[in-house]
# Entry
Amino acid sequence: MAEKLTPQQRQAVEDRGGKLLVSAAAGSGKTKVLVDRLLKYLNDPVNPANLDDFLIITYTKAAASELRGKIAAKLTEAIAAQPENRHLQRQMQRLFLTKISTVHGFCGDLLREFAYKLDLSADFRVADENECSEIRETVLSELLDRAYESAGENPDFRAFVDTQGLGRTDKLVSEIILKVYDSARCHLDPEKWLDGCLRDADVEGLTDAAQTVWGKYLMEDLFSYLDGQIEVVRKCAELAESAEGMQKPAIILRDTLYQLKHLRAAITWDEIVARKNIDYGRLTFPRKGIDPELAECIKACRSACKKGLEKRLRTFADESEQVLEDLSQSAAGARGLIALVRQFGADFDRAKRGRRCVDFGDLEHKTLDLLLGTSRSGPTAAAREISGRFREIMVDEYQDSNGVQDAIFMALTDQKQNCFMVGDVKQSIYQFRLADPGIFLKKYHNYVHAGDAAPEQGRKIMLNANFRSGGEVVDAVNDVFADCMSPAVGGLVYGADEKLREGIPHVQLPDPAVELYGIEVREDTYEEESVFVADRIGKLLDGNHFVRDGENLRPIREEDIVILLRSPGSVGNYFQRALENRGIRCSTGGGMDLLKTPEIAVLRSLLQTIANPQQDIPLIASLASPVFGFTADDLAAFRAKRKRGSVYDALRADESPKTVAFLETLALLRREARMNTLAQLVERIFTLTRMDSIYAAMDGGEVKRENLQVFYQLAADFEATSRRELSQFLEHLDALEEKGLMTTGEAASGSVTIMSIHKSKGLEFPVVFLCGLGREFNRESLRAQVLCDKELGLGLSVADAVNRIRYPAISKRAIVAKIASESLSEEMRVLYVAMTRPKDRLIMTYAAKNLQGDLQELAQRFDIGGAQQLTKDAVCPGEWVLLSAMQRTEAGALHALGGRPAQTRVTENPWLIRVVEAPQAEIAAAKTALEERMLPASTIERLQKALSFRYAHQAATQAPSKMTATQRKGRVKDQEAAENAEEPREISRAWRKPSFLGETAQGKTYGSAIHAVMQYISYEACTDAERVDLQIAELVGRGFITAEAAAMADRRRIAAFFETDIGRKLRSGADYVREFKFSILDDGENYGDGLQGEQVLLQGVVDCAMIDDDGVTIIDFKTDYVTEETLPELVARYRLQVQTYAQAMARIYQRKVKASYLYFFRLNRFVAV
# Structure
């Protein structure tokens, strides 16, 4: 029997004559309306339609497949009712000709048909994400290489890299280019948006920051906030004036109100800067004779006003002159960035043409080229031809469209005005995928109600009957969002049209269907919250709590329950562990990190081992996994036989059957990796190890096995277009892990599901636990180095070279403010999606360390400031829920802790509201049991013996891993040779010598100057003191040495060195090295007792060495103050150092050292050592 339509649904099915927007609330049956509308067309008595007269656009391929199935079922039902209707029977064949696809699938079909019009290869293919990433990386790398090579001729590029690039690599530079490129591609005309960014960056001729798009936005944002706060302070002042004993506070509040109004009256940026320092005065109240609760409310409102306003006024710290100067400075960087983005776009397109492929962005933009022309001037002849094929174009989930997609829909329906759009802007939660809810909202506000619409006029129909949830949940949703959702936060007023109503009557539950728990936690918010949630689930599963089953009730089962979290990847493990500790089966129904699941972690470790078995950690992880089953004793046994070298070396030396079997398997898999594809390798791993069967037999085995299959498909997709190496795949996994893009599949049956709110969209569950409401909103997107916005363009940072700091320009601050506002609205919509998932029960948890403080602020501010200002100031979704809950008469537990608002309401369906402490008994019991457990005396004796163990090679553990030549036994450390050694030394600060004291060429300063000159000077040019002087001057000019060092270097003594026999040989072009840094392994016996047999890394720097065919000559420069009397002492001090250098050079060059010399500049003398 066909389900009866509501009046609104019937209107949506039957309305004709213009573009129709159906705003379908959660659970309102939008898919049914779409299918029934199709059937209505097919059964039109005057002009019956065919199914393939329609174009139906869905958001995903899965949704398209599901919709095709529902149409087939409805058509089968209609044919059964009218078996003689041949027209309906023909539609079953036409169903598979009907275009039901994603927007990208439709665009691909169009482009193949009209490829000749777009200079596009007719046999093009759509590159997958992996191939696109590979092409992008290659193109970008080549682009940056060219840019760096020509950087000297491109000041804009240098400005971009210098001001926006951070870190030691250009990774951030690449990320910025790709981000701006992707942002530009979301616009109808990317080049026009980039031109606008350049135009906005040119501030020449402007005198006030308010003349920029960013200054204007920031001022409007400030004034909007000020309007609300002025009203709050006005109410505070009026209440204080009318209250007994508050005359002085009233005067202070009136003065604050005057200053706020004065600030609000500012017209220019500089006027705001001049008026921003508000003197709030000292707000004190008499201790007696006043209403203390009113005083606290006034103080809370005034404190919130001060805090919020000070935060916003930080943006107005600088006057226009400085702000415009910053923009002018960042303009060069913007030009450099946009030039790179444009060049990258051209190179990327060229590379894709070479492979005859396109990406998803190309599908949309080339379709626009076909439908609107490259100038986007209006529908083309092709658009009119394609439009004529369809009786109507239906778009599902319209709220998730972006500007380019909407332009495609409008171009195709411009002639007939035959677009049917269905969606719910309150469920638009994919802004991170660049969906634009503003498109839906614009039509929502501009279209008239269908009953009042003229022919061809845009009209809207509201579907608000909810057929999913019971009346208790429906009322809870309405209460929360009527209090909190507004045009400023959420995008629209949650009024009569938006409020849900129960679509069908539901049998009454014996206890409250909506529960809210405020959880006072002590240490770890997530762990303690998860413990409470697991306890509550355990109680619900006791057989005495029920959910609906048609018109009856039945006990709650594990599979009825879902735990919804905003970001389960970071906290889901807490809930999983807490449930498992209570014996409750659970699984991740989506949103969890695939690469962090145990089964995938083991498979990944095994692949890393196959690629390189010398990696200890992946190898041990593979061995200790359930797949190979090595115990701790097994690992210790083979490692004890060979303590040195890698774990793999020790493993190969072991002859136990388990080890031999593993090595045979590993050798076979390593051969497979060289010969076969990645997918074949993974498949071979499953065959040889039975990994998939092992994990399938564990708890949650269905999900584990599904995860392994997803990983297999990932490997297959990675090499779909060309042969890839295992090492490349492992690098690809590293990149995916960093981005956190991998999620698991469907939940296992018979278990509690842990799921992200985003993943739950479109689903329904009998019991929903909405947890983590006390977790603050994620602000990570606001911290990016470069920000992009549709209207405000690019937001860059300013580099202060003098103070060596970066700070956001006004452009970036404006975009931060806008993104923060849009993100707050999205968070409101995410909460709406979460609260509309349950069919029968909704249980919410808000965990906080300072729960009382949170409740007090809400209660104190609500009576004066109202819900609107509190909604804007919220830092977590739980504050919106608490704000609504505190207005309920049954919220006594919240009132007792935080205070009671002046007005509360009695509701038809009361909630169960409690304040609880997180269960600590479980942790405390475990600690007590551990402390009280008594061990036998024999066990204690063995433990003491084990703990008193002394390592036989203690000296080796205390010796540094790096040594220098003069750290050999009995020698004092030579600082020159220790430049690169990490030897512990006293921490001291080298204070700069005041310039007015002058410099003297003595000690280390003199020595450093001589060594610097000898390091960089051209030996061949040093024929006399004059030439040495010219060489030193050239070193200063080229920046190799400072002018101070040049002044200290003794030209006469340097020239004298080159007059010696060795100096003349160096000058004549002998083969030599200088400042030669070396690192070799040396015998530890040379560095201390107890280091025999150890190897120590020896490092040093050889000043100069001549490399001849018959051997090496070592020369070590010394600038010490020396006389004939002290010379033997210095030679003895440095002998070991030079001899060590000789040994090192002999090993490195595989030649004998025929001579080693110390050269003392003070004496102009060589001394052989």
User: Anything to note?
Assistant: The two ends are 108 Å apart (CA to CA). Confidence is low (pLDDT under 50) at residues 923-934, 969-1001. Residues 320-355 form the longest helix (36 residues).
